[in-house]
Design goal:
The protein has helices at 18-27, 44-54, 86-111, 118-122, 133-142, 149-154, 172-181, 202-211, 225-238, 264-273, and strands spanning 3-4, 32-35, 57-67, 73-79, 185-188, 215-219, 241-244. The chain is α/β, with parallel strands linked by helices and 281 residues long. It has two domains: 3-93 and 167-273, TIM Barrel (Alpha-Beta Barrel), CATH 3.20.20; 101-154, DNA polymerase, domain 1 (Orthogonal Bundle). It has a seven-stranded mixed sheet with strand order 1-2-3-4-5-6-7. The longest helix has 26 residues, at 86-111. The structure holds adenosine monophosphate (AMP), fe (iii) ion (2 copies) and zinc ion (ZN). The site of adenosine monophosphate has 12 residues, from helix 5 and helix 6.
């Protein structure tokens, strides 16, 4: 069984519609795929229909952007939560709204130095999608400022850039609690991805574990080999699940579907733990 539990569609910053992601998952030979758009479950219905048509099992999921009190960015994957849970919905709606204002502020700053307008950015965003820096990157590519998203992220759009603006994001432990309350299975995404910025220390792991963290995404291209060793030790000490996934974004990132996989026993445990909604087969 080939199981990939982390993929994005154009409901957030992936480049393909949810149905196309399901078709791509089948073409890549996957048996199970999770759709984990940033701060949104709007792609679930379309993905569910396409998953059945393409003969892949769909794990409805989401990736929640969080920030610690120390200002460190944390991504939390949620699997099989109830998408209508009021507390969780309130948090992601707040974050999604804040992302809009934040993108407008970044574009205003960028427009002082680059040929970029708000319309240029919106052109790359599917209606209702969760807005992020990747969409601003797309507009910079179209304007010929950078050659691809990756170049934008190593230069103009890093978190150290003078054009970077933060947006509201819940603390990781709160997000873990809400995912559990919604019947979901919370898994810490790419926890040691140091290329994305500062990574969390022991205190944040402890807070997330105390709040009900279920697993760690160990096998991910952005985690260093020594970081993965550290995570395996942590998982063993605290009885956490270990997952592996691609973090596919279509043509928006080099990550290919199935490049990292999750073990069937772990998937079975996630399915068992998740009570907010069911795997679509
Ligand atoms: P934001 O959440 O708007 O701050 O943007 C962060 C998002 O940008 C993450 O979810 C990543 O998927 C994406 N991202 C980060 N680094 C890169 C990169 N080097 N190339 C393409 N996308 C990236
Ligand atoms: Fe993303
Ligand atoms: Fe992420
Ligand atoms: Zn992701």
């Amino acid at each position: 069984m080939k199981i990939d539990l982390h993929a994005h569609s154009n409901v957030s910053d992936g480049t393909e519609a949810p149905a196309a992601v399901m078709a791509a998952a089948a073409a890549a030979g996957l048996d199970v795929i999770a759709l984990t758009d940033h701060d949104s479950t709007d792609g679930w219905a379309e993905a569910a229909r396409a998953a059945v048509d393409n003969g892949v099992a769909l794990v409805p999921g989401m990736e929640i952007s969080c920030r610690t009190a120390q200002g460190i960015s944390v991504h939390l994957l949620s699997y099989l939560h109830d998408p209508a849970h009021a507390g969780l919905l309130e948090e992601i709606t707040k974050a999604k709204d804040a992302r809009l204002t934040r993108a407008e502020r970044m574009v205003t700053l960028l427009a002082e130095d680059y040929p970029l307008s708000w319309d240029d950015v919106i052109h790359h965003v599917a209606p209702g999608a969760t807005l992020g820096r990747p969409h601003i990157a797309d507009a910079l590519v179209a304007a010929g400022v950078v050659s691809d998203r990756s170049e934008a992220f190593t230069s103009i759009l890093t978190s150290h850039s003078r054009y970077f603006v933060q947006h509201y994001a819940p603390e990781p432990a709160l997000a873990v609690e809400l995912v559990r309350a919604a019947g979901g299975v919370p898994v810490f995404a790419h926890p040691v991805a140091s290329s994305r910025g500062r990574v969390v220390g022991e205190r944040t792991y402890r807070e997330m574990i105390d709040a009900g963290l279920a697993g760690l995404e160990v096998d991910h291209r952005d985690n260093s080999e020594e970081g993965r060793e550290f995570l395996r030790g942590l998982a063993a000490r605290h009885g956490l699940l270990i997952t592996g996934s691609s973090d596919y974004h279509g043509t928006g990132k080099p990550n290919r579907l199935g490049e990292y996989l999750t073990a069937p026993e772990v998937f079975a445990q996630i399915e068992e733990l998740g009570t907010g909604t069911a795997v679509i087969r």
